[in-house]
Predict the 3D structure of the following.
Amino acid sequence: MTIRRARGILPGFGLSLGTTLLYLTILVLVPLAGVALRGATSQWEEIWQASTSARTLASFRLSFTASLAAGAANAAAGLLIAWVLVRYRFAGRSALDALVDVPFALPTAVAGLALTAVYSADGWLGRWLAPLGIKVAYTPVGVWLAMTFVGLPFVVRTVQPVLAEIDAHLEEAAAVLGAGRLQSFLRVILPTIVPALLTGFTLAVARALGEYGSIVFISGNLPMRTEIAPLLIVARLEQYDYAGATALALVLLLTSFALLLAINLFQRWSVRRLGPSPG
Amino acid sequence: MRWHGGHRWVVLAAALCAAAGCRRGDPPGGRNQLLNVSYDPTRELYADFNAAFSRHREAAGAPKVEVRQSHGGSGKQARAVLDGLEADVVTLALAHDVDVLARAGLLQAGWQDSLPHRSAPYTSAIVFVVRKGNPKRIRGWEDLVRKGVAVVAPNPKTSGGARWGYLAAWGAALRRSGGDERKARGYVAALYANVPVLDTGARGASTTFAERGVGDVLLAWENEAFLLADEIGKDRFDIVVPKVSILAEPPVAVVDRYADKHGTRAIAREYLEYLYSEEGQEIAARHHYRPRSEKAAARHPGGFPRLELFTVDEVFGGWEKAQRTHFADGAIFDQISVPQARR
């Protein structure tokens, strides 16, 4: 029996798949293979040593905890922002909507400089925080702040369309059936948006892990304290140590891949657990 | 969904690959064109010098030469040339970066002896910039390790200029202790323990000190210090010149392989030799680089305070060795910077 392909509205399955593969190969696979090849020239022992020194471990710890914290902050704030943008109509809503995308468009070095200027001890905000004993610039808090800044749009943009799709009748039905406000949020709305929320969270975490440009300005780059993993990679490149740099990059790549995989598995599990979206 | 999770990493990988040199430099135009690959703070210097060089050629009736410039961190620039950016000449921050190119066969091993003064037509020194009136009374190197003094310096692991600063501190301590390596190490460790922010480049450190108001002292190139005073205001900073410092010698060289390929060797050499001419020296002096010519220096009284200067070759046995003992992975800078953070 031959398998009949459903006639799609767009012609040329072969052409479109070919283009997709070519595009991904040139843009993604070849550069990635380059990293792997360069990394492969170093000894496993070297890679192990480079990635388990106290300093590298400290930078990994900072990079991962700060990105997870930044992702979490963005998940909470992003959900709220998406809610406000979808559910309410008010003057300046579209301006606010556009503002969300600014972190995507701004060169990260500019973002880093701006954040540092505002949050350093004599900056606009920093000078009010300093008497309270809160230091932001040149501390891990600053690293977290820069990561939160660059990851802001992800959660908003993934949750927004899903939230807009939810039928108002569902909430009405829940209310009629006697659900309180909290209950209908937790039992009716949240299950629908959790997958999108997790996707946004994952994207924000991944973005934060790879961020370099803005963080080096605000972190202070002190070894063991505010040094992020990508900085160690750049430091190795600066010494013409390509092998060491790619080795570290590989370790970072694999670790984050494992992390992202875990989040994805959790997401699938949560979808199964919470069941398909009602309706 | 799964694609989303990975795609950021691919971008990082692509960026890394670009930095590591999967990029190829653009091909040169005609043979009356030179590409000068230089480091960051020389932007203004070479803009002036290139104009003067083409005036000089014109006056001599020689065909016009267009000099294109590329600026960036010294190490990054050397890597770009290493990976195929076809520079006719390089004018970098430290000899080590040119040595790396020589080792790759882009220029001959004895490159440093092919021009006068070990191929460094102008020099600089490491000096201190302090807040107006010098409230912490910083006079010399020993004041930098006092309790409560915050020093802003760039990261020697990522910045060529920062390596000069580190070696200046080490050499000065060595002088004071009569050559005691252990004391020098202790001094440098104490100095970097006083550094609250390690910027990735020299310009970044200047910004942190001048614009963010961080720190009491900035360790800077002399030309960068004067630029800071000129640009941001003499009423906010003072320059303190220590008794002893390092003679920073930014080298220049013709990149043999590419100059030969482009047929520009003669012009490239003439271009670099013109840096040693009276006019070239005068332009360097105007941009606060110490000229080799005493005549040019004499025209800028007060511009170049007298101080005792030692070279990397004298104290550290050359860049190769300095790099290995101090800045390589797990070398002295790494050793002293790890326990510091545990405080």
Q: What stands out?
A: The longest strand of chain B covers residues 122-131. Residues 167 and 246 of chain B are 7 Å apart (CA to CA). The two ends of chain B are 43 Å apart (CA to CA). Chain B is about 45% helix and 15% strand.
